[in-house]
Amino acid sequence: MLEQIFLGVNLVENILDKLQEEDRRKHEQKLQELFIIADSNIRDQFATELLMDKILAPIEKAQFQIHDAAKHAHYMAEVIGYHYADHGLTQEQASKISSQFRFLAVQLTAASSLYNLKLIYKAITIFVDQIAVFKHRERKYSIEREVREGILDRLNTCIANYENFQRRTVLFSGNSQDNKLNVAQSKLPLPPS
User: Fold this and answer.
1) Which comes out higher in pLDDT, residue 124 or 184?
2) Residue 31: its pLDDT value, please?
3) Which of 67, 146, 183, 190 minimizes the number of CB atoms within 10 Å of its CB?
4) How far is CA 190 from CA 52, 102, 106, 112, in A?
C-alpha cells in the first residue's frame, strides 16, 4: 500500500514541488495583472508586502514555534521507528515514513517566509491524509493527532500571527479605510527567492 503512495519518490518532496509549481503559475498570472494596472499605489502595496514578507517575518515567537514543530517532526520519526507495528506498518514502511518526517523537519527549519510556511503546511496536511490509513488502536496515539497537535497547530498559529501582524501594521500606518481594503485584496502567493 505504502509503495503505491510513494511511487519511488519522496512523497512530501513531490507534494511540495506540485504545490510550488501551482503557486508559481498563480504568482506569474498576478504579476501580469499588476503590469497591466497603471495605478502605482497598487504596485507600491505589492512591494511593501514583499518587503514585509522577507524582512519582518516570521517574528521571534513564531520562529520558536516553527522550530518546536520541527523538533516534533523528529520525534514522530523516532516514535514511528519504534512503534511501527502498533500502527499497522511494516518496518520498511515505518522507515520510509520516518524519513519523510525528518525531511519535513529540515523543510520547517529552512522556511524563511510566510509563503514557504503556508506551502509546507499544505504539504504536511496532504502527507498526513495519505498516511492516515495507518491507525493505532487508541486515538491518543494516532499519527494524525500527533501531527495536528505537534506540528500543524503550531504552524497555524505562526501563520495567523503573521497575518495579524500585517493587519496591525496597516491599521497603525494611518492609511484610509479604502487602502486597508486594497491591501487585503492584494495578497499574492510568492514563490521562494
Assistant:
1) 124
2) 78
3) 67
4) 12, 25, 20, 12
Q: CA nearest 157: which of 56, 72, 66, 75?
A: 66
Rounded CA-CA distance 24/32 in Å is: 12
What does residue 60 show for φ and ψ, rounded to 5 degrees?
A: -60, -45
C-alpha separations of 31 from 4, 100, 145, 179 in Å: 38, 34, 39, 20
The pTM (predicted TM-score) of the whole model is: 0.61
Phi and psi based region of residue 90 (left: phi greater than 0; alpha: psi -120 to 50; beta: remaining): beta
CA distance 177 to 5: 49
Amino acid at 124: I
Evaluate if residue 128 carries a pLDDT over 70: yes
**How far is Cα 98 from Cα 80, in angstroms, rounded to an integer?**
6
- How far apart (Å, rounded) are the C-alpha atoms in residues 50 and 10? 31
CA dihedral 116, 119, 120, 123 (to 10 degrees): -160
CA angle centred on 192, ends 163 and 124, rounded to 5°: 70
Please enumerate in sequence order all residues whose Cβ is within 8 A of that of 109, keeping only pairs 6 or more positions apart, or say none. Answer: 66, 67, 70
Please give the residue that has the higher pLDDT: either 79 or 56.
79
